[in-house]
């Protein structure tokens, strides 16, 4: 009977000999150290720790050894695998740090470099001013109303109580749209003011009506320093029970204070418009000299030519004939309206001397208004 095979020689399992394991460990560590980037390291990892790697294969042989040799070989292989995994993890951290540092340099953006940007355009200062005026009134509960620029003569003139032979209907003032036969009998004009929006608002809306209507208007004027055939107006209309000229005055004063600051005021001078009765020309206190240049040769004012007042536009109490034309009972309702040109307002608000600068669309004009294009 033979004794237990205590002297079973593990040398028979080549792969588990100490120097073989040592070589596997050394090979793996050398390959890890040689991996130049994360991709190479992934391959090294598969080759030296994957299922088919020498250490994994050696590990599989351990089971065949007798207990003592098994423990020793297991320890050796385990240590070798531990060392390899540790080296892998350490190299991984190193290579990641290298990659991050490289990416930071390679993908850095120099935000101070000059760049090539196409100007995107910006709102015109005229639009901004018009919006500001709109804001003042919407804050008081007014609604913004609109109407077409190509308007029926009836809205532009008739409903506003212009008699058929009123001079404003002449071609020297009004652009008529050609009729189908090339004549001027189309009954359609380019609106000469924003007042037709009054009619549209009264016909379309429930009473009371409080509207502000900014918009473009047309008159057959030559373009010069103070005229342009296309310009912008703001129209205001309030129709309610019991409105009077006093409400109009208070509203105008509030507007000029909001636009030009405390202490500003307006004054009314008699005038005539077919659609308001009584009608007035509205002036505002000169916002530069505040009236102090009047009769004071030591303090001349260029803005108001030392008159103390600047003409703004027209206004008045809505003519009962207009209310009637819109089906509103003038016994019950009354109202007020005003209208003025925004270019003019912009000219004295910003010391613009030539109206052509406003309409020509040159960015050198708009940029000083703080526009970014
Ligand atoms: N529509 C008039 C104009 O263009 C201004 C105006 C509006 C006058 C409203 C009175 C009331 O001159």
UniProtKB/TrEMBL annotation:
Keyword terms of this UniProt record: Aminoacyl-tRNA synthetase, ATP-binding, Cytoplasm, Ligase, Magnesium, Metal-binding, Nucleotide-binding, Protein biosynthesis
Every Aminoacyl-transfer RNA synthetases class-II family profile domain range: 133-368
Enzyme class: ligase
Residues making up the signal peptide according to the UniProt record: none
GO biological processes: phenylalanyl-tRNA aminoacylation
SUPFAM superfamilies linked to this entry: Class II aaRS and biotin synthetases, tRNA-binding arm
Cofactor: Mg(2+)
GO CC annotations on file: cytoplasm
Classification via InterPro entries: aa-tRNA-synth_II, aa-tRNA-synth_II/BPL/LPL, Phe-tRNA-synth_IIc_asu, Phe-tRNA_ligase_II_N, Phe_tRNA_ligase_alpha1_bac, Phenylalanyl-tRNA_Synthase, tRNA-bd_arm
Record's cofactor remark: Binds 2 magnesium ions per tetramer.
MF terms in GO: ATP binding; magnesium ion binding; phenylalanine-tRNA ligase activity; tRNA binding
Catalyzed reactions per annotation: tRNA(Phe) + L-phenylalanine + ATP = L-phenylalanyl-tRNA(Phe) + AMP + diphosphate + H(+)
Main location: cytoplasm
A Pfam family hit: tRNA-synt_2d
Residues that, per the record, bind Mg(2+): 277
E.C. number: 6.1.1.20
Compartments where located: Cytoplasm
Homology family: Belongs to the class-II aminoacyl-tRNA synthetase family. Phe-tRNA synthetase alpha subunit type 1 subfamily.
Subunit annotation: Tetramer of two alpha and two beta subunits.
Descriptive protein name: Phenylalanine--tRNA ligase alpha subunit
The species this protein was found in: Actinacidiphila paucisporea
Name of encoding gene: pheS
């Amino acid at each position: 009977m033979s004794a237990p095979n205590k002297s079973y020689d593990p040398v028979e399992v080549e792969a588990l000999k100490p120097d073989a394991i040592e070589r596997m460990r050394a090979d793996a560590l050398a390959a890890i150290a040689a991996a130049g980037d994360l991709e190479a390291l992934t391959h090294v990892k598969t080759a030296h720790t994957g299922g088919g790697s020498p250490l994994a294969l050696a590990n599989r042989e351990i089971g065949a050894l007798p207990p003592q040799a098994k423990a020793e070989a297991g320890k050796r292989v385990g240590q070798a695998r531990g060392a390899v995994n540790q080296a892998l993890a350490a190299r991984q951290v190193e290579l990641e740090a290298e990659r991050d540092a490289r990416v930071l340099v390679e993908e850095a953006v120099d935000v101070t470099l000059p760049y090539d940007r196409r100007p995107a355009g910006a709102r015109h200062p005229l639009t901004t001013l018009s919006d500001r005026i709109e804001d003042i009134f919407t804050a008081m509960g007014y609604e913004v109303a609109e109407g077409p620029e190509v308007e029926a003569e009836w809205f532009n003139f008739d409903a506003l109580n212009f008699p058929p032979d009123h001079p404003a209907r002449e071609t020297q003032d009004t652009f008529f749209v050609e009729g189908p036969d090339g004549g001027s009998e189309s009954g359609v004009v380019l609106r000469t003011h924003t007042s037709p929006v009054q009619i549209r608002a009264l016909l379309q809306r429930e009473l009371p009506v409080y509207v502000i209507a900014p918009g473009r208007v047309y008159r057959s004027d030559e373009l010069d320093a103070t005229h342009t055939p296309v310009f912008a107006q703001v129209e205001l209309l309030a129709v309610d029970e019991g409105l009077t000229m006093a409400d109009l005055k208070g509203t105008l004063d509030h507007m000029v204070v909001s636009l030009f600051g405390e202490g500003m005021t307006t004054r009314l001078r008699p005038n005539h418009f077919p659609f308001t009765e009584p009608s007035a020309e509205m002036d505002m206190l000169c916002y530069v000299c505040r009236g102090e240049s009047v009769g004071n040769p030591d303090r001349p004012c260029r803005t108001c030519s030392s008159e103390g007042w600047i003409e703004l536009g027209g206004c008045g109490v809505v003519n009962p004939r207009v209310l009637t034309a819109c089906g509103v009972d003038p016994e019950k309702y009354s109202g007020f309206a005003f209208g003025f040109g925004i270019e003019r307002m912009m000219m004295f608000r910003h010391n613009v001397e030539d109206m052509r600068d406003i309409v020509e669309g040159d960015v050198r004009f708009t940029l000083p208004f703080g526009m970014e294009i």
